[in-house]
Amino acid sequence: MPRPPHPKLSREAIARAALALVDRDGSDGASIRRVADRLKVHPTSLYNHVPNLAALIEDVRALVSQRIDSSPLRDDEWEEGLRRWARSYRDAFRRHPRTIPLLMSHRSSAPLLMSQYEDFAVAAERVGWKSDDILPLLTAFESFILGSVLDMSGPTVMFDPTGQEESVPRFAAAYATLVEQDPADPVATRAFELGLSLLIAGARPRE
Known about the structure:
This protein is an all-alpha fold and about 210 residues long. The protein has helices at about 10-25, 30-40, 45, 55-65, 70-75, 80-95, 100-105, 110-125, 130-150, 170-175, 185-200. The protein folds into 2 domains: about 10-65, Arc Repressor Mutant, subunit A, CATH 1.10.10; about 70-200, Tetracycline Repressor, domain 2 (Orthogonal Bundle).
């Protein structure tokens, strides 16, 4: 009797299976065994394409990061390039927020990501940032962008002053405006755009 057919394996197919599991189960989904189960193959079959778990995680990172557009950092003025790059970065991870804790726990050397970081470094140096400032500047933007994505995956607002209006009247008044806000323009999006503008306003080196 012929053996039942298995899906044709490739490194990309394995990475996409892992990404689907992480989207569903969080970091626990990043497992050679679980990916093999999803693809209905023996775990050893995966090692013909992916050398180890660290490489699999890097492949997941590359899948998510391929939606980040760093070309504005090359083509646009510094501030506009930052804005467009940051928005694309947020949009890429907004599709896969559960990958963030996993990816932040592993160092990256993915060529695609390194190329995007090179665009950032070149653009930053072009406006006067020194080499030893590049990583802190990049980290400031990434921390803000990824934190914004995590905010989007939780409740609309993480606080509720109901019942405490007399002791915190101004904050309660600000909270009350939520009922008047346009659902098409959620707090998380407005917060991201406001925070991004503040970051960009200080994104040139001081003389």
